[in-house]
Amino acid sequence: MGDTETDEQITVMVVDDHPMWRDAVARDLEGAGFTVVATADGVAAAGRRAAATRPAVVLMDMQLPDGNGAAATAAVLQVSPDSRVLVLSASSERDDVLDAVKAGASGYLVKSASVEELLDAVRATAAGQAVFTPGLAGLVLGEYRRMSSAPADEQGPAVPQLTERETEVLRFVAKGLSAKQIATKLSLSHRTVENHVQATLRKLQLANRVELTRYAIEQGLEYP
């Protein structure tokens, strides 16, 4: 998605099992100029409608009648891998947050957020940024930092080795900076930054910047 994409060009699906809340969120989005292409009330419906509409952003509740938001996130991304999932939930429980991120969610917002915070979060998610309610990003980073410090026999497969420059670029990608902005900060050419990003994607076997952002969170990388 380009940096100049307007709200009207951002398509959204709202997944929530409470009709009044679901409809209210859809109205707020449409009132702000977003295009709501679908709503769903559960895991199965979310998968079907994501496959049919391929929304840019999916607002996902964690408590659903036929499963949870993590299962629904995985179902959506399986049929619409370019979609970005932003959880919007009443729960800020540690396990819910971590389960959502592990399933592929790009961010996590609690329902106490204001309408303006929600609209800004949808825009940021559509732009490829990771959005978390204050405190939750630290929770995720802390958990993965703890995992990375576990004994070697308790850890997963070895992580591909990135160069110092690739790691530096990755940290800026995780903050949501564009290649042009990263180039300015590091005094590099736009092409050089893109080459580093592509090299990192290949090494980590990831598809896009959203997955790079998720990887940075999972590895507990400190942002500059």
Descriptive report:
By secondary structure, the chain is of the alpha/beta class. 51% of the residues lie in helices and 13% in strands. It has 10 helices and 7 strands. It has a 5-stranded parallel beta sheet, sandwiched between helices. A hairpin with a 2-residue loop joins strand 4 (63-64) and strand 5. Helix 4 crosses helix 6 (136-148), helix 7 crosses helix 9 (190-204) and helix 7 (164-174) packs across helix 10 (209-218). The two termini are 25 Å apart. The mean pLDDT is 83.
Would you spell out the secondary-structure blueprint of this structure?
Elements: E1 11-15, H1 19-31, E2 35-40, H2 43-53, E3 57-60, E4 63-64, E5 67-68, H3 69-79, E6 84-89, H4 94-103, E7 107-110, H5 115-126, H6 136-148, H7 164-174, H8 179-186, H9 190-204, H10 209-218
Parallel strand pairs: 1-2, 1-3, 3-6, 6-7
Antiparallel strand pairs: 4-5
Helix pairs in contact: 2-3, 3-4, 4-6, 7-9, 7-10, 8-9
